[in-house]
Design brief:
elongated; mainly alpha; 17 helices; DNA polymerase, domain 1; about 10% strand; 3-stranded antiparallel β-sheet; 8 strands; hpI Integrase, Chain A
Length: about 450
């Protein structure tokens, strides 16, 4: 049984608790407190010793005392002796607040790319923008989450030259932020900072906005390439349009990654990892022209596009170049270049091959990239799709040419059109037996 002894000297005065545990003598300094409080602690420690030796749970009063024990020195000593379980290291006190917890969550997501963490920070800005950095997580209710969803849809994302709002957040963008917010608050539930996520009260819609799709036809691409002022911009445009590379990918490609002998490009993507793609026939003259002028860059293992660092925003300047070419800029400038390439390749190669070259799955391609082009509409209206030659003007049915139509007008240079959404266009089975017509003609550097 524990015993108490009052100790007094010139430096301190208080209570010392002594007891035996598994034959060993223990001594615990309780400090200056009332005798009644010291006796209460002694009783709880007696119960802890008893339950530890009997391998049973201590009584409820002692469990509550241990849970509420704020003296870290006493708690640490009891943990070292094995009388109480180590305390679960809860998050810093600051994590109870929205801003600090969001930041810790984002920094802890080392399993995602830097670009994804950047998107997480955008969501954090919108959460903090409405609720504030110092808003307690516990105080955010489901009603607050619903207000936040409505608030998102009202956020201005574009203004005119006079500063007047011209566009608010798209539903697809809001849905992405809602999805990230759900992950953040789910983490707070797992960390036992809140009992329930308020974000369960809201749902996001479609995260893809296909209304901004635009197929960049080869003729239009040729005009833009001609308007590019130097090799850097020619390479940037060509690698996106004819190589299908993301901006974050072609800005990191080095000359040593261009394997001329094997006719392929090594792409160490910060988004999806390592992959290879061919040096497509449209790419080769542009790369060769740049290599001829940059022999020193090849030797020094520099990047193909040396003028811009990885992470640079090229969209605004590329739109100026597109305008200089006499073409009205399209939305999602680089993503639509990549989507145009995927759509072309879809009609010439098996899906798994294209997936390997472009670094995404067929499911992602169908959701984000594949488009219905003007040639598809023309083919649908003019080519037979049945085996009945009598009803098809004598044209054998089931054959749809993979070659692009050359009947495009200059309408592309006047106003960007829409692809009218993805409808899953595929070549017929019989067309897979046809001799490929090849890719588009080689474009001048």
């Amino acid at each position: 049984m524990a015993s108490l002894r009052k100790e007094t000297d010139r430096t301190r005065a208080g209570w010392r608790l002594q007891f035996r545990q598994a034959g060993q003598r223990r001594s615990l300094w309780l400090g200056s407190r009332s005798k009644r409080a010291a006796e209460g602690i002694a009783g709880h420690i007696d119960e802890l010793v008893r339950s530890h030796e009997a391998n049973t749970l201590p009584d409820a009063a002692t469990v509550r005392w241990v849970s509420g024990l704020k003296d870290e020195r006493i708690r640490g000593t009891l943990e070292n002796w094995g009388l109480v379980d180590p305390a679960v290291k809860r998050n810093d006190d600051a994590d109870r607040y929205l801003g600090a917890f969001c930041e810790r969550y984002i920094k802890g997501r080392t399993d995602v790319s830097a670009a994804t963490r950047t998107n997480y920070r955008k969501t954090k800005r919108y959460l903090v923008g409405m609720f504030g950095e110092d808003r307690l997580l516990l105080s955010i209710t489901k009603a607050d989450a619903k207000k936040w969803k409505r608030w998102l849809s009202e956020q201005v994302v574009r203004r005119d030259t006079e500063g007047k709002p011209t566009a608010t957040m798209a539903d697809a963008t809001a849905s992405k932020h809602i999805k990230i917010a759900k992950m953040i608050f789910s983490e707070a539930v797992d960390a036992k900072l809140i009992d329930e996520s308020p974000m369960t009260a809201i749902k996001g819609g479609q995260e893809v906005n296909r209304e901004r799709d635009f197929f960049v036809r080869p003729e239009v691409a040729a005009k833009v390439l001609k308007a590019c002022p130097d090799h850097d911009w020619k390479l940037a445009f060509a690698l996106a349009r004819f190589g299908g590379l993301r901006v974050c990918e072609f800005l990191t490609v080095k000359w040593t990654d261009v394997q001329f002998d094997d006719q392929r490009i090594r792409i160490d993507s910060p988004k999806t990892g390592l992959r290879f793609c061919p040096i497509f026939i449209e790419l080769r003259p542009i790369i060769d022209a740049a290599a001829a002028d940059r022999e020193n860059d090849l030797v020094m293992n520099r990047r193909l596009i040396a003028a811009y660092l990885p992470g640079a925003n090229l969209g605004t300047q590329m739109q100026r170049i597109i305008e200089a070419a006499g073409v009205i800029p399209w939305k999602k400038t680089f993503q639509n270049l990549r989507a145009s390439r995927r759509t072309e390749l879809e009609e010439r190669f098996p899906g798994h091959v294209i997936d390997s070259w472009m670094g995404h799955s067929a499911k992602v391609a169908a959701k984000h990239y594949l488009q219905v082009t003007p040639d598809h509409w023309e083919a649908g209206a003019t080519l037979a799709t049945t085996n009945d030659t009598a009803t098809s003007g004598g044209v054998p049915g089931g054959v749809i040419s993979a070659a692009p139509s050359q009947s495009q007008s200059d309408e592309d240079t006047k106003k960007p059109g829409k692809t009218l959404g993805f409808t899953g266009f595929r070549l017929s089975e019989s067309n897979s037996q046809m001799t490929p017509t090849g890719l588009e003609p080689v474009l001048p550097p």
